[in-house]
Protein: DNA-binding protein
Amino acid sequence: MNEPHKRSDSAERHEAIDISDFVYAATGARVRRLTMPDGTHWFPAVDVCKELGHSNSRQALADHVPEAHRECLETVTGAYGLSIPAGREWRRDMNLIDLQGLILLVQACTKAACAPFKQWAAEVIETVQREGSYSLEEAEVQPADPGAPIAYAMPEQVAEAIVRLEAHNLRLDEELANGQRESIVLQRESITLQKETLATQKSTLAVQQAMVRAMERIADRLDALVLERRAPRGHLTVLPTTESVLADWRQRLSVTEDVWTVAVVIAPVLVEEGELREPLEAIAARTGLSVRRVNECLRLLHKHTCIRSRGAAEDGAPVYVLNQP
Structure:
């Protein structure tokens, strides 16, 4: 990420190689940059050291970068009357290095991607020693506008390094995209499997609940058979009917209108199904009474041994059965 500042025309004309390409060729990465009004560039030392493989940025600066080429962020910006860039990553005490400091760190790096740049730097030094100067070739196509900066051809080693790095980055991007696509496919398959597992579990639970209800009904029948066998000889056990149940309840307690309304609704269910599993809300809807009043009526019937409790259903509704003598 770059933090551009307005630069002078002279600074533009003297920058023969775009600074972003230059740094990319040197480090193999796009690092943050502060460009001062006079055209000088400063880079966060931590960014450069990270890309070059220096684990301890402070030690790397102390070993390879003279003090003249490193400074803290507040001092650099303050010298030009500029404010600290926004964002918590730009701290006042952040160590910055100039372009020479960056090159010195690159020269101390053993990273393979830095080799073309270091080779070009060695060529520049050898050329200056032999010929007294080093100059870039002017680009074949020059700007037509008067006063426009002169364009120079990028050194072959630098250009090749940029091409190789860009190609490497494109491969990494493609691999990352493929990995993300595979991850999405796996996530979808996992979600589908979870849904199928959940559906199977629900089906299994429904079967188990049905089996429990069937076993409870069988138990009730067995209880009835036991009572029948225990009955004295000559006495015939008569299965209850709705009418006989209601008649029995009238004899056991003084039935009010509300209690009778509830009794008329639940008696057929108890006789035909052997148990009552309806939620209180369902009974209230059928009787026109409140849930609270329905509950009071059921408690009264239970108190006078007309019905007895058998726990609760899966949905929390109380379960009642007939309390046969």
Q: What stands out?
A: The chain has a mean pLDDT of 80.
